[in-house]
Amino acid sequence: MLLARDLALDIQSGRLSPGDLMARCADAIAEREPEIGAFVTLDLAAARQQAAAEGVAARPLAGLPFGVKDIIDTRDLPTEYGSAIYAGHRPATDAPIVTQVKRAGGIVAGKTVTTEFAHLTPGRTRNPRNGAHTPGGSSSGSAAAVAAGMLPLAIGTQTGGSVIRPAAFCGVVGYKPTFRTLPTLGMKTFSWQLDTMGLFGARVQDVAFAAGAMTGRALDIGAERAERPRIGVVRTARAAQASAAAHDALEAAARAAEAAGAQVFTLDLPEELEAADAIHGVIQDFEAWIALSDEYDHHRGALSAGLRAHLDAAVGIGVDTYDEARRTAKRARQRLGDLFADVDALLTFSAPGPAPEGLGATGSPMFNRLWTLMGSPCINVPGLVDGAGLPVGVQVVGRFGRDRAALLVAALVEQAIAG
Amino acid sequence: MLLARDLALDIQSGRLSPGDLMARCADAIAEREPEIGAFVTLDLAAARQQAAAEGVAARPLAGLPFGVKDIIDTRDLPTEYGSAIYAGHRPATDAPIVTQVKRAGGIVAGKTVTTEFAHLTPGRTRNPRNGAHTPGGSSSGSAAAVAAGMLPLAIGTQTGGSVIRPAAFCGVVGYKPTFRTLPTLGMKTFSWQLDTMGLFGARVQDVAFAAGAMTGRALDIGAERAERPRIGVVRTARAAQASAAAHDALEAAARAAEAAGAQVFTLDLPEELEAADAIHGVIQDFEAWIALSDEYDHHRGALSAGLRAHLDAAVGIGVDTYDEARRTAKRARQRLGDLFADVDALLTFSAPGPAPEGLGATGSPMFNRLWTLMGSPCINVPGLVDGAGLPVGVQVVGRFGRDRAALLVAALVEQAIAG
Q1: Model-level pTM greater than 0.95?
Q2: Contact status of A105 with chain B (Cβ, < 8 Å)
Q3: pLDDT digits (tens, 9 = 90+) for A133-170
Q4: Residues of A in contact with B290 (CB under 8 A)
Q5: In terms of C-beta density within 10 A (0-12 exposed, 13-18 middle, 19 or more buried), how is residue B230 classed?
Q6: How far is CA B46 from CA B65, B107, B355, B380, in A?
Q7: Which of A74, A289, A290 best probes binding to B when mutated, by most B CB atoms within 10 angstroms?
Q8: b/e per residue B144-163 (b: at least 16 CB within 10 A)
Q9: DSSP assigned state of B174
Q10: Residue of chain A with shortest Cα separation from B74
């Protein structure tokens, strides 16, 4: 995999040029893309041209190439939202997150495969660790492009588990920042209270570096790690649905973190949080029926049968049910805030297990949706594998708005697992 | 003015046809529009065709024609956001709020004038009460179209004071619901924490009826009024900047409400709320610089000098300042929630005075921005005038999420003023 932060430092210090890096990516893409199918659109010629522009090497992102999930608007490349309804669609503007990449000196090399409207119906991407398995969704192409070493960084989005799950399945770092840390404008909305931008990279320090450069926030942790953090291991009421491999990985990560100095203990989720987990779908689907109302009313036949049925069911969710779900979420956010008085981060499953076999489904967000609803910063930490060699990730969940602290704990866990 | 709720009932009971109403609007538009300039685009032929369609009369909005502020995407009419950058722009979809109008049986008759990107640079609209005065902004055309009797209902948006202020200046009801009660997707974002959809109509019951029909919420108050509500009269730390006419109107409205049975008392805003008022601009401008980043980076020369200077200044707002402003807003929301334990609604200025003379500026949002930041439901209640006969509105502010209660108090104030 390509190590974004090291590559940026190499370029900034003159040991590497943006053009050389772009050529390296182009080679990797030529080799791996035919088998993996991570991209909807590539424009390597334009990317090479931008890499050759004056002054790129000195900028924060030093000309690093990015993949951008094709649920996010770009002015220079078509944006199809994973739907035939938008075949060839050309947005008028870049989404602000794309402008943030460009302003910081990053280069958009291509658009990556998303499931239909970032929901469940898969695209064509294969898992780079084993092509017979799903890469996860909905940010399938972004996770796969980084995992295959085709790009150092990619942008995805998460409404249920669409950053953490594909990161876990592909064996890369996925970082879903605190809600609204990265702007969601200019992405095709599914649920405005849940949709969250995220980043994929090889290591925790790589996504931290990129997020810092894009936002101007003090997120670039370099080689720093959390010291003696208090880590609560959370298995949730859904623990029985996690596979033996997932339990083994969580246990191994907890023991490794403990050996590296963390104070590790088991933590049961308060009932307010389990209640919030149960109503994620109410909020998501009520809002999806509004967000996709134009497509539902004018292009229903061009929606997948799965999404159509999902939206048909959402019509029946009343405003009272929705309002009650929002109150449940609010109570849970307050309870979670209290809980973080006694803990620095939570450690939990990233997914029920390794990537399922087959490309017809993208796996379950059951261990992600609560944290999306809470707006908490989440990081998938890779490094562990199951008996068949497939990646099994673990998830670090931080306190709302304390992303640097969460990244530092994730970096400790990452190092502990590797060591 | 056209009374939306009465017209809908007339249509539903067969006393009037949607086509007759559309013809009446077309006549009023032919008469008043040349002098007022409320519309960017009109398509009365299409509106007439939709009014003639089978079954329209039986639907909740009964074929009532709407004006839609041209900051909101429409699939059938160009959407230019008040900016030359978007001349002739055709969005791919209707904004969800437009779909809500259509689903409920309303008809979009035209797009109404907005200031540039719903900020301060005015369009060409004149105040229907006195053409030498501003109609207010940024929802200039929507307020003017309803005030001139050209349409019964119109949609606007508010980020600072862009619904309540033009409603006050034009002498119509403006209703800014609780934040996110009406979906903001598909409008050109200025600030995602502030942008709020709102409605204009002749009477409180008209906007309440429309909002109920569009959202499925129990907002249609009919002839109901609040009974003996506790009303806190709030003059704020900016009271000295309100004109004598504004003070007279607030006092007159308070006395009339009291005579109609309300329990009226003076209420000083807690310091947490005055602090929040002071940082509205930090949140608005930090987010505007992100939201308009594509236009800023690619079309800077096509922005007005005023907006360009505003965004230039916003570049200097750091993330720490922004985060502190968000914490200030959060504290104020909690404090305001506590305050509503002892009061049913607040009564305050809608604007510093009647519409200023001239079309070069749209007036000040100084008595609106705090309530936008709090997400509170607000209603401009018209009916009072200054010595020159210009409308002077008063503003009812309700508790977050309790829109029906706020509308009932506003209806009481409206009736008290009229009586």
Answers
A1: yes
A2: no
A3: 999 999 999 999 999 999 999 999 999 999 999 999 99
A4: 96, 99-100, 183, 185
A5: middle
A6: 11, 9, 34, 32
A7: A290
A8: bbbbbbbbbbbbbbbbbbbb
A9: E
A10: A294
How far is B397 from B403, CA to CA, in rounded Å? Answer: 9
CA A232/CA B66 separation, integer angstroms: 54
Domains recognised in chain B with CATH numbers: 4-215 (3.90.1300.10)
pLDDT band at A129 (very low <50, low <70, confident <90, very high): very high
Q: Is A138 a catalytic residue?
A: yes
d(CA B170, CA B157): 16
pLDDT average, residue stretch B24-29: 98
**Tens digit of pLDDT for each residue in B134-168?**
999 999 999 999 999 999 999 999 999 999 999 99
- Give the integer Cα–Cα distance in Å for A77 and A99: 14
Contact check, Cβ <8 Å, A319/B86: no
Q: Which stretch of DSSP H or E encloses residue A381?
A: strand A378-385
pLDDT of residue B38: 98
What residues in A contact B297, CB-CB < 8 Å?
Answer: 99, 102-103
Strand A196-201 to A391-397 pairing: unpaired
What letter does residue A113 receive in the DSSP assignment?
P
Is A69 labeled as catalytic in the residue annotation? yes
**ipTM for the whole complex:** 0.96
Rounded to 5 degrees, what are φ and ψ at B69?
Answer: -55, 135
Q: Which has the closest alpha carbon to A212: A12, A412, A13, A404?
A: A404
- 3-state DSSP assignment of residue B410: helix
Token reading at A68 = 């951008």
Percentage of residues in chain B having pLDDT higher than 90: 100
A375 contacts A368 by C-beta, under 8 angstroms: no
Centroid of chain to Cα A341: 27
At B55, is the pLDDT very low, low, confident or very high (cuts 50, 70, 90)?
Answer: very high
